[in-house]
Amino acid sequence: MKHAMSLLLTLACAHAFAACDKSEIRLVNSMREIAQPYHANVDKGARMFARWAGLERNYVLQLNHGDSAKQVSLMRGLLATNARCTVFNVEPNADPVIKPMVDTAQRAGAWIVTHWAHGEGLHPFDGYGQWIAHVAVDSLEAGRAISVALADAMGGEGGIVALQGRLDTDPARKRYAGLQQVLKDRPGLRLLDQQAANWDRTAAFPVMQTWLAKYGGRIKGVWAANDDMALGALEALRAAGLAGRIPVVGVDGIPEAIAAIVKGEMRATVSSDAYYQGSIGLAMGVCVLTGQTPAPAAWPRDRREFYLKLQLITPHNAAQFRGDPPPSAYIPEWDCAHLWKRSTGPAF
């Protein structure tokens, strides 16, 4: 079977051709914002790839500021020109936005790579020739990993408060499900309260202040569905003189969170590597458009929809993740023969 698949790819590569001159290729990153460090690093990763590929002047950043309709309309507006040589790397504002964006790419002849999660029953390999790939993150595993780290830091017992993300997104729901699994396995832990803070530290800060006033010393751990909310909670703990005394965990591996782990104020974060997520979809698109890979329709299913390798960052390894990574850390993975190097297998 492996030999047959290898032969199929070899034959497909033999018929691959450059659809666009490299100078015509337009690279687009579509996301919510860049105020949050995670999103800022997605943009940094994209710009890093664009410079390396000699396409820095052809890079476009589209920000929807939390408006899914705007995310789609910005895409449609840009595709009025040069659609066939345009590659979209999409971090969806909410899961439902992926379908209209994929449909827009299909109609216009543009190319799209999506991230995180999408609607149930929707897959790139089900007749979507322009949908290059979906790079998924196992958010259940991410939520479980930080929950185990928090439980261990608490000695397996005590009260937890939990800050949830946007509840209309798969990552928020599944990360919280990971926490619920660990709570079930660790009977000494108790969930005191939970509230959505929509991925935002400014929203998390007053929520944490309210919890401190309400529960006081009963709070033994803080769980947050992303690092930005974890840092908002940490600011409230600092104001109360409790930073470093109550363990805090988050997700995303942003620089401030890693610095807080090194300092002893946070216990753990999980990184999907925002720099990689910002660049890999653009690299895939360039490889397709320059004929260095076959058309996505010829790719095996597990190369069109796969889970991305995650990294748990704790006090034991945090120092090695400080600072912006150099382009040399990603060049081997931008190579058209190694685009799937971080895949851990089929998603969903």
Explain this structure.
It is found in: Cell envelope. Belongs to the bacterial solute-binding protein 2 family. With about 350 residues, the chain is α/β, with parallel strands linked by helices. It folds into 2 domains: about 170 residues, Rossmann fold; about 130 residues, Response regulator (Rossmann fold, 3-Layer(aba) Sandwich), CATH 3.40.50. Helices cover about 40% and strands about 20% of the residues. It has a 7-stranded mixed β-sheet with strand order 2-1-3-4-5-11-13, sandwiched between helices. Strands 7-6-8-9-10-12 form a 6-stranded mixed β-sheet, with helices on both faces. The N terminus is likely disordered.
CATH architecture title of the largest domain? 3-Layer(aba) Sandwich
Strand content: 15-25%
SS class: alpha/beta
Which bin fits the share of residues in helices?
Answer: 40-55%
Number of helical elements: 12
Query: Order of helices and strands, N to C?
Result: HEHEHEHEEHEHEHEHEHEHHEEHE
What's the name of the CATH homologous superfamily of the largest domain? Response regulator
State the gist of this model.
By secondary structure, the chain is of the alpha/beta class. The protein folds into 2 domains: 2-137 and 273-307, Rossmann fold, CATH 3.40.50.2300; 139-271, Rossmann fold, CATH 3.40.50.2300. The chain contains 12 helices and 13 strands.
